[in-house]
Design goal:
With 284 residues, the protein is mainly β. Helices cover 4% and strands 48% of the residues. The chain is globular and about 55 Å long.
Length: 284
């Protein structure tokens, strides 16, 4: 590759952008029930079922009997582009996620295998066959002394290489249980070591969290973590609350910010945002 750092082909399919609003507090679920909302209220356990823009379901989550997520779809609002994820379990742990797009020549055809230590996600391997190229990634998931996610390190073998050629690091900063910053560091590898002279950083700042319940907390956290490596802007989906502003600082060019605000149901779950994105849930 002639570029200084890996530019993933999946950037062309960055279909989803899900963010929200207000102050950086972290209340327990259903503490504040003084918000009125529209639609049917689910008072018991639930899972996110659909995210809709206009008449199009841009995200859809399919559950098995018992409520386990077994398939997900992410769709482009302006085209027929679609990315599907099929989730495989061993008992209650996700062991594999297979992502594939609906292109005749796939941009995304990724199989992730998940490993656990003491019940927490600790390793991920990814095999990718995309546009005639075979790539392999090994991920290490690292936590701090308090058990909070600290970083995800990805070492990549591009184009069938037997040695690592590229390096990515996703470094997280939390406030309580909300991600407030994620630095994505990318560089080449030389002799099995990251070459810092080729380093490039994209920073995602997640601000103005509300005190309500993030819809994505109803999905498996491991699914959201793996999907975040495909679409890093959505790493705030692992937060407890809803983000009010996302700011992206790329290696070159000015920072770009996206504000969000929500309407909630009586149980403090978002049901719509200021762009008329609607959230539908399924009772469990």
């Amino acid at each position: 590759m002639g570029k200084k750092y890996l530019l993933s082909a999946v950037a062309a399919l960055a279909l989803g952008f899900v963010v929200s609003c207000d102050n950086t507090t972290d209340d327990p679920p259903n503490q504040n029930k003084n918000n009125s909302g529209n639609g049917t209220t689910i008072t018991g356990p639930r899972i996110l079922s659909k995210v809709t823009s206009g008449t199009k379901d841009i995200e859809e989550y399919i559950t098995a009997v018992g409520g386990a997520l077994n398939q997900a779809f992410i769709r482009d609002v302006a085209s027929s582009d679609e990315l599907s994820a099929t989730i495989t379990y061993n008992a209650d742990k996700i062991t594999q996620i297979k992502y594939i797009d609906n292109k005749s020549v796939h941009v995304v055809n990724n199989t992730y295998s998940l490993g656990y230590t003491s019940g927490k996600l600790s390793t991920i391997t990814m095999d990718q066959i995309t546009m005639g190229t075979t790539n392999h990634s090994d991920f290490s998931v690292i936590y701090d002394a308090n058990g909070q996610l600290y970083r995800i390190i990805e070492k990549i073998k591009m184009g069938g290489s037997t040695t690592y050629t590229h390096y990515k690091e996703y470094k997280f900063t939390f406030s309580a249980s909300n991600v407030v910053k994620m630095d994505q560091i990318s560089m080449l590898m030389n002799g099995g070591n990251p070459d810092t002279s080729t380093s490039s950083i994209t920073t995602y700042a997640y601000e103005n969290y509300d005190s309500k319940i993030n819809p994505y907390t109803t999905l498996p956290k491991e699914y959201c973590m793996v999907t975040g490596t495909l679409f890093p802007i959505n790493f705030n989906n692992i937060s407890t609350n809803n983000v009010g502003k996302v700011t992206i600082q790329n290696p070159a060019g000015p920072a770009i910010s996206y504000p969000k605000s929500y309407a909630y149901d009586s149980q403090n779950y978002p049901i719509s945002d200021q762009a008329q994105i609607k959230y539908t849930y399924k009772p469990l």
